[in-house]
Design goal:
The protein is an alpha/beta fold. The protein is built from six helices and five strands. Helix 2 (about 65-75) packs antiparallel against helix 3.
Length: about 190
């Protein structure tokens, strides 16, 4: 069975372009697409040996190199032929070289992840050497806090004589959170008013 895979896209032109590219490839190789798949209907388990999957470009299989590599390896191990129409690359004609190529994708994913991590660490170390403070400055409080939305309610309940544990139960707020919030906002305490 021959499947055509079109990745969902908010841009209609991209969707049409993918489909046209696959149809053009199919026509030039005397193939006809039996079923069209998209991201919601695509399932590697669905494929059987000697099935053919046509897609515009290899990257359309997933969002990350690692997931693309895993899907390719899964399809190739089942004996599925995967054709990347625009790249003119066919995986699965020669199982050994196709598997090596799919494995290479996985290695590239690992290398890319390691490089990204190393570059981030180097950039942070450089900023630190230059004397920049990383993260939030020490001692500075956040400008807004989680319980600011309930600040007026908390103030009214404190004024009415309710205890902090009672307020916690009424507003479903953890005790430690409310105690810290009231401590950080002395204007909420009845003595301050």
């Amino acid at each position: 069975m021959i499947y055509g895979f079109v990745q969902d896209s908010p841009v209609i032109e991209s969707f049409k372009q993918q489909r046209e590219s696959i149809l053009s490839y199919a026509k030039s190789h005397a193939l006809s697409v039996d079923e069209w798949l998209d991201s919601t209907t695509f399932d590697p388990e669905k494929f059987k040996e000697k099935d053919v999957l046509l897609l515009e470009k290899t990257f359309r299989l997933g969002k990350e190199i690692r997931s693309i590599s895993e899907i390719l390896q899964q399809l190739l191990s089942k004996g599925v032929k995967v054709c990347s129409c625009k790249d003119n690359i066919t995986f699965g004609e020669d199982y050994v070289s196709s598997t090596v190529m799919a494995h290479a994708f996985g290695l590239v994913a690992n290398i890319a992840e390691e490089v990204r991590s190393a570059l981030t660490k180097e950039a942070l170390a450089l900023r630190k050497r230059e004397g920049q403070t990383l993260g939030r400055p020490r001692g500075r409080k956040n400008t807004s806090q989680k319980w600011d939305a309930k600040k007026e309610q908390i103030r009214k309940l404190l004024l009415s004589g309710k205890t902090e544990p009672e307020i916690c139960r009424m507003l479903n707020i953890p005790r430690s959170s409310l105690f810290v919030y009231v401590k950080d906002h002395p204007e909420l305490k009845p003595e301050a008013i």
